[in-house]
Amino acid sequence: MTDLTKLTIAEARDGLKNKDYTSLELTEAFIGNIEAANASLNAYVTVTADKARDMAKASDAKLAKGDGGALEGIPLGIKDLFATKGVHTQACSHILDGFKPPYDSTVTSNLWADGAVMLGKLNMDEFAMGSSNETSYYGPVVNPWRKQGSNQDLVPGGSSGGSATAVAARMCMGATATDTGGSIRQPAAFTGTVGIKPTYGRCSRWGVVAFASSLDQAGPIAHTVRDSAILLKSMASVDPKDTTSVDIEVPDYEAAIGKSVKGLKIGIPAEYRMDGMPGEIEELWQKGIQWLKDAGAEIVDISMPHTKYALPAYYIVAPAEASSNLARYDGVRYGLRVPGKDILEMYENTRAEGFGEEVKRRILIGTYVLSAGYYDAYYLKAQKVRTLIKRDFDLAWQNGVDAILTPATPSAAFGVADQELHSDPVRMYLNDIFTVTVNMAGLPGISVPAGLDKDGLPLGLQLIGKPFDESTLFQVGQVLEDAAGSFEPEKWWG
Amino acid sequence: MSVDTDTVKRVAHLARIKVSEEDATRMTGELNAILGFVEQLDEVNIDGVEPLNSVVEQTMKKRPDGVTDGNKARDIIANAPASEDNFFIVPKVVE
């Protein structure tokens, strides 16, 4: 029998319908891969094998009758940020120790309603704060990719590092992820997978542990552009429980795949050509431009003068919102409690022990920029700069641009415990330089694997779209995928 | 703008995070690196620019004021580190 874990979601959907194999067989194959690989890769923080088998059997019963939803019997991994009823939901933080919500997030409810099977909860940076999955309380996730001839462990990116590794190492068919500054697209680029952050308001944030509420969005990581379209269709919804959920019907994203890009206008922003950017990234970008040109798209140079200010503005807005959101972790209602002589000391002890260093850093920055006398100088200014960043994009759309092509990251994956990156927090933040603009403007962005660097590590290209025009990203993304091909790491783990 | 160790301690107290002398010294350097980085924003002319409060042009959704959920006291205290009779237990706060 063929290795079922090598199938795409689209293929498995057809195979299940044709009864070539059952969801239980498919699910067992992934449980086997998880058991073999997790000790080396640390992608899962909890494996829900029994629950997965029960869900798979229920799906098989439906499939046998010719029923079933869009994802009937498809085994998925879920980022630890999503509330899952009765199952480990801790944002990979010590402060949420033992937390098991009595409800599911809207996104996961949508997936289960469509028949998906849950394999377990995926590792991530603590509270989604990080670009390397090294801030997790559960230890770093390891990238299944290694440099040619090297056995050094590399990071899978972050914060959705567990999601990216689990997909790339065939430990699930697809995964949920979230993106506040690049946390879907950067790990996708580092692992040779596809990741899309939809428009702000497309996926409900209800039941997703909050980091920065004006920036957070859920989206999928998968093997192919088509698979990510299938997953997003099920994850997205209009939700009365999230007031920022937008009242626009979710389109059939798959219908956009295979459509010609002839005549589409693709913008190339000059300001994404950063000083000190490796030559390989520039070459990859040029290759992407050529592929789209060959497919009939019209390439236009555009200017987005406020690009370089997106990251500094983000490091005011995101910590400010995080410091408010994370105020709820006080040792009273859930999670960790560390006693103290009075309630104040209990709060301080709990938060000192429960939060990791990066999370503390961001809470302090956020508290400082929101403190009396500094609000105008920091937060208000950052929100004004955000208006200008969004205006750069609005101008491009007004000039007829359909989508924007940029590199996804300024480098390929780097080493676990990289000394240089850890000595200066700002250097780690620069990983998100190409992705963070998209969150600041609330736009959709997709990262598509586009090639390998000189060491044999994957690199991605990013497409940015108009609000709620994810369909165009899937349409253009498919052209990139067709030209670039797909990328599979050489198996070295268990 | 930069912060000194006393400011870091004051902010940590506002954020209800206990910091040791050693933590505060280390964090002072880290926070100043970040504050130095965001100083770039001073180059941007923001005269007459409105702050972006929502990326989506949508009026706030409203619903009729009514009871839509409830009677879940048990669910609500289920994850509490300490509870009794559907109440959260905390150290004594009033003498």
Radius of gyration of chain A: 21 Å
Percent of residues in β-strands of chain A = 5-15%
Largest sheet geometry of chain B = 2 strands, antiparallel
The main β sheet of chain A shows up as:
11 strands, mixed
CATH topology of the domain at 8-258 in chain A: Amidase signature (AS) enzymes
CATH fold-level name of the domain at 5-43 in chain B: Histone, subunit A
- Counting DSSP H or I runs of 4 or more residues, the number of helices of chain A is 16
Beta percentage of chain B is under 5%
Pattern of helices and strands of chain B: HHHEE
Helix segment count of chain B?
3
Mean pLDDT of chain A: 97
Query: Low-confidence spans of chain B: pLDDT under 50, at least 5 residues?
Result: none
Helix proportion of chain A: 25-40%
Give the beta-strand count of chain B. Answer: 2
- Multimeric state: heterodimer
Succession of helices and strands of chain A: HHEHEHEHEHEEHEHEHHHHEHHHEEH
Low-confidence stretches of chain A: none
Structure commentary:
The complex is a heterodimer of chains A (494) and B (95). With 494 residues, chain A is α/β, with parallel strands linked by helices. Chain A has a domain of 251 residues: Alpha-Beta Complex (Amidase signature (AS) enzymes), CATH 3.90.1300.10. Chain A has 16 helices and 11 strands. Chain A is globular. The model of chain A has no long low-confidence stretch (mean pLDDT 97). With 95 residues, chain B is mainly α. Chain B has a domain of 39 residues: Histone, subunit A, CATH 1.10.20. Chain B contains 3 helices and 2 strands, in the order H-H-H-E-E. In chain B, strands 1-2 form a two-stranded antiparallel sheet. In chain B, helix 1 crosses helix 2. Chain B is flat and about 55 Å long. The mean pLDDT of chain B is 93. Classes of the chains: A alpha/beta (494), B mainly alpha (95). At the A-B interface, helix 9, helix 10, helix 11, helix 12 and helix 14 of A face helix 1, helix 2 and helix 3 of B.
